[in-house]
Amino acid sequence: MQRMLWRIVGLLVLLPITAQPALAAVDAKQSFNRVWERNDKPVAAGRADRSWTWGPGPNTAPMPEAYVDAQLPESSRMVQYFDKGRMEINNPAGDPNHPWYVTSGLLPRELMTGAMQTGTNDFAPRRDSYISAIGDPGSFPAYPDLLPLYENPGTIEPSEIGRPATDLLNQDLRITRFTAYEADPATIIVRGANNHGVPQAFIDFQNQQGPVYENGGYVRRNVFDPLFVFGLPITPAVWVNTRVGGTEQPVLFQVFERRVLTYNPANQRAFRVEMGNVGQHYYQWRYHREQVSEWGAWNWNTHEVRPKANSAAIYSLEVEWTETPSGAPAGSGPPPKRGATYRLYYAPHTDAPRELRHTGYIGGCYTVNVALLPPATPDSAVSRIGLALQCVDSPSAGRGVGVTIKSSYDGGRTFIERYRM
């Protein structure tokens, strides 16, 4: 498991759309609604005691979305967003009655990699997908935190089959052992598709039977076509401690191509396995980027941050600057190189003693800067804080380069490097 943690992924014909866009929208609405009704109308009507497959209703109307594909001369496809996913029509010339005429978007991978798929072979980097994948908003982990777990296909070892899931993803992205639920049969790993192990709880959930709505009536069937709704697993099953309803709880999760599944032993039995709000999160990322940036407004003079979740708490940064002369006569040769030793402190309120949380050094640079980063999300946990470090190693380089962004979920004790520019 440790070795795979750091494997980062290196990866009527068209007339209704072209000549009659209004009719296309109507047809898409009917097709999307038929898919929603099958799984979620029984839930909405109180006939099924299970969690939503798509959500209580659509979050958008059917809408064209830019996508480059040989089957889409207009370079757009009809989609509709729900809390749990996105419905798509990728071949409008296909049979509307075919089970795969409407498909479910492969959204989790895009959120994990920060690369938005805009065509069959086209991706647009966007990066700002720092939305909590599991638990309350502003909680660990965000989607980029899951990227080190990505394996497609997986590398399940035979010795792992039949054993409970005991890997725990920590806030510094290390994997440690977690055994609190190793006696829970729901956590036992069985062989799944794509060479991944899958917990028994997720297998049972995907294969459950119950009321569905088909052909104008309620019948008992398999609730899901697992490939259609979930897709293949693309990470192992891992525990994480995250906030749920304001309380930190252990949650077992696994990312699939189309959904994120969670198992929370603290929930009522019928709702222990649920799907994450991937559709809602993806829509925010794609259309409301101002809502999904990790950090709020800051500059190189930002050396104090008061968390919005508790304005009495204070993060403060102290910096000691150093300068190393170049050895050249004054007025000639390169300017001196600079460095900075920085210390991050935290206090729960103004009158409390400060606790040293983190120290570091950056140096050997012609331009050096250090700043704190405040979380952009108002309801982020008090333990969320960021660091921006700048080291420009050439006197001719601009001030906008050499920046490293780091993120902490544990109050500045440990940091994850997000990206460099």
Would you mind describing this structure in some detail?
By secondary structure, the protein is of the alpha+beta class. It folds into two domains: 2-291, no CATH class; 304-420, no CATH class. Helix content is 14%, strand content 32%. The strands form seven sheets. It has a six-stranded mixed beta sheet, covered by helices on one side. Strand 7 (167-169) and strand 8 (175-177) form a beta hairpin. Helix 4 crosses helix 7 (278-287).
Strand order of the largest sheet: 8-7-13-14-15-16
Work out the radius of gyration: 25 Å
Structural class: alpha+beta
Distance between the termini: 30 Å
Q: Indicate the multimeric state.
A: single chain
Write a concise keyword list for the protein shown above.
globular, 421 residues, 2 domains, disordered N terminus, 4-stranded antiparallel sheet, alpha+beta
Task: Give the arrangement of secondary structure elements.
Layout lengths: L1 H4 L9 H4 L2 H24 L18 E4 L9 E6 L4 E4 L13 E2 L2 H7 L1 E5 L2 E4 L41 E3 L5 E3 L11 E3 L5 E3 H7 L2 E6 L2 E6 L3 H4 L8 E7 L2 E9 L4 E4 L9 E3 L2 H10 L16 E2 L8 E11 L12 E11 L7 E11 L1 E7 L11 E8 L10 E6 L7 E5 L1
Parallel strand pairs: 7-13
Antiparallel strand pairs: 1-2, 2-3, 3-4, 5-6, 7-8, 9-10, 11-12, 13-14, 14-15, 15-16, 17-18, 18-19, 19-20, 21-22, 22-23, 23-24
Helix pairs in contact: 4-7
Quick overview:
The chain has helices spanning 2-5, 15-18, 21-44, 107-113, 200-206, 226-229, 278-287; strands at 63-66, 76-81, 86-89, 103-104, 115-119, 122-125, 167-169, 175-177, 189-191, 197-199, 209-214, 217-222, 238-244, 247-255, 260-263, 273-275, 304-305, 314-324, 337-347, 355-365, 367-373, 385-392, 403-408, 416-420.
